[in-house]
Design brief:
Arc Repressor Mutant, subunit A; 21% strand
Length: 305
């Protein structure tokens, strides 16, 4: 009887914030297929730990050395396909946060909201959801009470929007046939209308999982400072938090949270800006992580659409 083989890959979602937009690092493919996340196989003989293995692959493929790396989830659905000799494919997903830097040739940054345009509710962009997605989701769910309830809760249509439900929204769009990966997996025709830029394999699902994890973690861990430069203004800090959340925050409320939490300290230096007063520069207070258990940014709950 043949022995079942398992192929284990290490797939990483590398996140940065640039010009007030969150970006994900992907690897271009020469065959014209959608790009994929940086990934590589686990060497069971040589790799002492999974984390050391993923750091090695990231450095080799992208030229980027990361400091913050966290294991995300293990992905192993049968629809992931077969590798080589028909092995079952498992992917151990990781999330890494880095300040903006230039990757090596063959890797490139793509906008997170190119992948998930419905997740960005800043600057009136929720119109993408209202004008394009909502009618199609409503039509798909019509007459099915369970579907209708899922659409309302997951997408904030008549219910409060929850920024952490990123994966649930992607999975619902997949089920409704509104993302390209669904037709690719099922071998059917491409949908007439699909939403968001596709990635290869199930990598957009992995990114959705990572974005939801990251948004939740912002509320109780100071992970935002992993994507910030050593010094920054409070406006730059707020814009970076808003970029990852896909939400606009009230300026004074945000600064009260920063002040109460003692998350940053002034450097005594300033940055000149055109047309305004010089802005004070701040840096992260690393001591805060040991001073209390949940140093983060509590999220406001937006109203329903």
């Amino acid at each position: 009887m043949p022995t079942n083989q398992v192929y284990v890959s290490l797939d990483a979602v590398i996140v940065t914030v640039s010009a007030n937009e969150p970006n994900i690092l992907v690897v271009d493919r020469s065959d014209g297929q959608p790009p994929i996340l940086p990934s590589g196989p686990l060497d069971a003989d040589e790799d002492e730990t999974l984390e050391l293995a993923v750091r090695r692959w990231l450095s080799l493929q992208t030229g980027i050395t990361v400091s913050y790396v966290e294991q995300l989830y293990t992905f192993g659905d049968r629809r992931r396909g077969a590798a080589g000799g028909g092995e079952r494919q498992l992917a151990v997903g990781y999330i890494a946060l880095v300040p903006e830097e230039t990757p090596s040739e063959g890797s490139l940054w793509v906008g997170t909201y190119e992948l998930f345009p419905w997740e960005d509710r800043r600057f009136g962009r929720r119109d993408v959801l209202l004008n394009d997605l909502a009618p199609r989701l409503t039509e798909w769910a019509r007459g099915d009470a369970l579907r209708e309830g899922r659409v309302q809760i997951t997408f904030g249509l008549g219910a409060p929007w929850d920024p952490i439900r990123v994966l649930e929204r992607y999975e619902l769009l997949y089920e409704a046939g509104l993302v390209e990966e669904q037709s690719t997996d099922e071998g059917g025709p491409a949908p007439q209308t699909s939403f968001g830029r596709p990635l290869g394999v199930d990598h957009r699902r992995i990114v959705a999982t990572a974005l939801g994890r990251l948004r939740g973690k912002l509320t109780y861990r100071p992970v935002i400072f992993e994507v910030m430069p050593d010094t920054f203004t409070l406006t730059e800090l707020q814009r970076s938090v808003e970029a990852l959340l896909g939400m606009e925050l009230h300026k004074q409320n945000f600064r009260r949270i920063v002040d109460r939490g003692e998350l940053v300290e002034a450097t005594g230096e300033h940055r000149s800006s055109t047309g305004g007063r010089p802005a004070g520069l701040y840096r992260f207070r690393s001591e805060v992580a040991s001073e209390r258990p949940q140093p983060g940014f509590p999220l406001p709950r937006p109203k329903a659409l």
